[in-house]
Design goal:
Radius of gyration: 20 Å
Strand content: over 45%
Number of domains: 3
CATH class of the largest domain: Mainly Beta
Helix content: under 10%
Oligomer: single chain
CATH architecture of the largest domain: Sandwich
Structural class: mainly beta
CATH topology of the largest domain: Jelly Rolls
Shape: globular
Distance between the termini: 50 Å
Number of helices: 1
Length: 286
């Protein structure tokens, strides 16, 4: 059962706490706690608050839609930004608080932010682990995020993940510790650190994170009455959307967009970091 709350012209659906307290999961799952917007599907069909994702289920958010998921009995929370795809890969162990659980989510596009209780996952990274075995420690973490280029092991933390159209992944640790592995090498990210993982490359940790997301326009060209080319650069960790279309960037954050020019002759550009960095631009085309 859900309640509809008007907010800034949108109907925000949230779970009814009274109903939730009397309903208990008999098996593990991720419950849709809140939908802010109108475009979200579960296995290709419209989703609603209270729906439960189980193994094999896929959720997609569309334009201007944010979804919050609860993992079991509040052992973790997952926020999906717009234009994001998440699939449930593994949910083993009994529902509720159980140290033997294994949770694996696959993020193939967009941005997610997660907050996972510390008791959920035992330390997966330690100086006592032999160096030649550390590359397997993340893959053994009880709570993992998989993307096309990396595996992220969680140790009671809050962090964000960006996944670009080509699979390039950026991870930003807000609190706690996460481990990131790719191409046979693992790195540990502490609070405030970021790692960028390009396809078939080792993770690259970054300490100095720009405070805001920025777009640097290199050129803007009309190629016809209805076609425009925008060349630009963002920080390598950031996602770029032009008129809600995800744009591929290279390892340095460069992109070359050629697309339809709207009747308004304006391009709406969103630059989105893996956690809380986000900035909007409106570019007028001559």
């Amino acid at each position: 059962m859900a309640l509809l709350i008007p907010f800034l012209g949108l109907d925000i659906a949230v779970a009814d706490p009274i109903t939730e307290t009397v309903q208990r999961l008999q098996s593990r799952g991720l419950t849709i706690e809140e939908i802010n917007g109108y475009s979200v599907t579960l296995n290709g069909k419209p989703a609603q608050v209270g729906d439960i994702l189980q193994v094999g289920d896929q959720i997609n958010t569309g334009q201007n839609t944010i979804v919050n998921l609860r993992v079991d009995s509040y052992i973790g929370l997952v926020e999906l930004a717009e234009n994001t795809t998440v699939e449930v890969k593994i949910l083993s162990g009994e529902a509720g608080i159980n140290p033997n659980q294994i949770t694996v989510l696959s993020v193939t596009a967009g941005q997610v932010r997660l907050s996972v209780s510390r008791f959920v996952s035992s330390p997966f990274w330690s100086e006592t682990i032999p160096e030649n075995q550390r590359q397997t420690s993340v893959t053994n973490s009880p709570f993992r995020i998989e993307t096309p280029t990396t595996i992220i092991g969680v140790r009671g933390t809050t962090f964000g993940v960006n996944v670009s159209p080509d699979g390039k992944t950026a991870i930003h640790t807000i609190e706690g510790t996460v481990g990131v592995v790719n191409a046979g090498e693992e790195v540990r990210l502490e609070k405030g650190q970021v790692a960028i993982v390009n396809p078939a490359e080792k993770p690259t940790p970054i300490d100095n994170i720009p405070p805001i997301s920025q777009l640097r326009v290199r050129s803007l060209t009309r190629l016809g009455l209805e076609t425009v080319q925008l060349r630009g650069k963002v920080d390598p960790m950031d996602l770029v959307y032009i008129n809600s279309q995800p744009i591929q960037t290279d390892a340095e954050g460069n992109f070359d967009f050629i697309g339809h020019l709207p009747v308004s002759r304006r391009l709406q550009v969103t630059v989105r970091g893996p956690s809380v960095r986000e900035r909007y631009y409106v570019i007028a085309v001559p």
